[in-house]
Amino acid sequence: MEITLRVNGVPRKADVDPRMSLLDLLRERLGLIGAKKGCDHGQCGACTVLIDGRRANSCLALAVAVDDRDITTVEGLADGDELHPLQAAFIEHDAFQCGYCTPGQLCSAEGMLGEPGPSAITEDLLTDPGLTPDEIRERMSGNLCRCGAYVNIVTAIGEVAR
After folding, report:
1. At residue 129, does pLDDT exceed 80?
2. Would you say the C-alpha torsion 150, 151, 154, 159 has a positive or negative sign?
3. Which residues contact 98 (CB under 8 A, 6 or more apart)?
């Protein structure tokens, strides 16, 4: 099937098998290797990208399902040579060690910052809880870091959220 999508603002066309994942399309056909294949089951978040501004596990999304949609990968977060504020904060706060999960963490954080409303741990559903460290941890819980850099990840996201 032929699909058309916009990846990091650039229109792209691709012939894909209906069973191909968005992750495989990005990595194998489009050469965008920022999103990582971690578990390939939607459990680790290493493959997180933004689909129309909302975070999604690209290993679970079929490429045919993103026809005519906007996809943002970690490669599309920066503005030329100017780092995205989250990227700069991750560097400043040493929010990574091996770096394997970092692209997914960054895309997930960018999507999370735009998500309104309460989370599963919000006590008062009628008030905005703000992005406290506990709220950030809850909202980022779908992104795993084998190195355990969570403290610095939460600090970096919190800085950008303020």
Report:
1. no
2. negative
3. 146, 147
What is the distance between the alpha carbons of residues 35 and 38, in angstroms, rounded to a whole number? Answer: 9
d(CA 87, CA 60): 25
Give the percent of the chain with pLDDT over 70.
100
Report which of 106, 96, 135, 112 is spatially closest to residue 47, judged by C-alpha positions: 106
CA angle 148, 132, 55 (to 5 degrees): 65
For tokens 């920066």, name the residue. Answer: 78
Distance separating alpha carbons of residues 149 and 147, to the nearest angstrom = 6
| List of E strands, the chain | 2-7, 10-15, 48-51, 54-57, 70-72
Query: Considering the domain 2-76 in this protein, what is its CATH number?
Result: 3.10.20.30
pTM of the model: 0.94
What confidence tens digit (pLDDT) does each residue in 39-54 have?
Answer: 999 999 999 999 999 9
* CATH class, 85-161 region: mainly alpha
